Amino acid sequence: MEPNFGKPSFLRNILVRLFLFCVFVIALRSAYVVTIRGESCDVADFCFFALPANIDVGEVVTKSGAISKQKKIPDLWATGGFQKSVQFYSSVFQDLMSEAVLSPNFKTLCVDTPTGADVFALRELGVEDSIGISRKGFKPLVVPGQGLKQPFSDSIFDFVFCGGGAVEKSTKLADFAAETQRTMRPDGFLVVHTLANDTYSFESLLGLFNSCKLVRSRDIDGLNYKLPFIREVVLQKFGGQEEFMEKKSRGVSAEKCSVPSYKKDLIKKAEALIEEEPLKPWITLKRNAQKIKYLASMVDLSFKPRYVYVDVGARSYGSSIVSWFKKQYPKQNKTFEIYAIEADKTFHGDYKLKKGVTLLPYAAWVRNESLFFEINGRESVTESDYVVIKMDVEGTEFELIPRLFKTGAICLIDELFLECHYNRWQKCCPGERSAKYERTYRQCLDLFTSLRKNGVLVHQWW
């Protein structure tokens, strides 16, 4: 009779299967750790995910500062993308610490951070008093709020970080900048990560944060191939009212219009002026419009709090507002406030039912000082705003332009489209000049040349 080996064989199969299952679990764990963390683990913590020692997953910070309980680690924290972001921000913050821009004892805020990877990195580095805000919030590191409406008291943060292009993504830049500066302490630091790579947009960014001074700016490696580089701008809030007022006093004032060199460099890129008087100006000037190098095609307009177009001598709604500005001007998807200045009552009916256009029914040369400083009773435009002017004032440009220089209002214009009126050759009568205007083409050319030499980006209009 043969021996019965059924029971030992059964037990052996169970042991083999149990052993293979353990090997599978260990292999799965190792693969997970290497994929997510890119490093080895400590055996003791089984390290499927490593948290900063100062983050208590069971605690959630509320807007009021109260603490509530969090049941588990957010799944997002265990993803490779989140960990890669944390490593990126950790490197950024370590550099800032070495420059004394950031310190572990600082109270810090990360603005418009949906996931809180930057807050996570700060706490990992020992900056425990760190919090983020985002529209929906993301517990436990990010509370509900927006950059343009922050749920905090005045002057409480030593360090504010705006990463991920938070500034240019804001729909209300003026409110965003004002709120950010409101919650910063005097001498506090603001660090902005932006894609702005031209001088014009960089200076526009600095103009937004007018309660701060520039500490430094540099290009750093971006987070991934989609963002190969980022410009990192470090600003510091003025320490007192005297310092702020000193900067403010250097702004635009009457008879003092200092044009920065970067704006003058842009003028050099503009289309050439027509030196010789055209025999058929109604054709030549219209063709020249096709060669215009718009400012908006040369620079990034992202950091302007307002976008304003003023049509001086607008005539009908369909004249230049619709046929040219709305259809052809490169607005970079920005919404412009449009003002039509037209004294002729014949055209006023065109604007009654038109949305997005404000009619100012008076002649520009009668109330020119109101044109740029108090548009329809609203606040005055500033150097920070983007202002485009089209001017067709029937010959009075020779009186109006000097007035703009005298008042300093010319400094507020980013781009000017000017029709200069002179005794041009008549279309109806070859060899005869118009008797309506006394100025010559040479005088018009001198006016355009003078404007450009004084830093005004002006184009010949027809």
TrEMBL record:
InterPro entries hit by this protein: DUF7870, SAM-dependent_MTases_sf
A Pfam family that the UniProt record links to this protein: DUF7870
Domain DUF7870: 268-462
The organism's place on the tree of life at top rank: Eukaryota
Protein name according to UniProt: DUF7870 domain-containing protein
Protein source organism: Salvia splendens (Scarlet sage)
Source organism phylogeny: Eukaryota, Viridiplantae, Streptophyta, Embryophyta, Tracheophyta
